[in-house]
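Lab notebook, bench 4. Still working through the backlog of constructs that have no structural model yet. Next entry is a single chain of 95 residues. Request: give me the structure tokens for it.
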Amino acid sequence: MAETAVQPTALQTVDAMEEFAGYLDVPMHVALEVGRRILKVREILTLQPGSIVDLPKAAGENLDLYINERPVAYGEILETDGKAGIRLTGFVQQR
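Model written out:
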């Protein structure tokens, strides 16, 4: 993601919570993306268990976090209590 990172302050977070108080329970589609790749139909038809699909990102690079298909933040994958999660390391500045 080639966006500029910004870090919201605690006061900005509180202000946002107050501003959106009427919408706090609206469900939003959240997606984490490791990377994207275009495959030809021929390549897709040969996929099977154990197949490896190379991605343009290097191992250990940040995952991108999208909310309603818009890039919002990025972070590193981690394991906590046997489950995968993401530790946010920055936010995308919307233009």
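Notes after review: The mean pLDDT is 86. The first strand starts at residue 5 and ends at 6. Flag for follow-up if needed.
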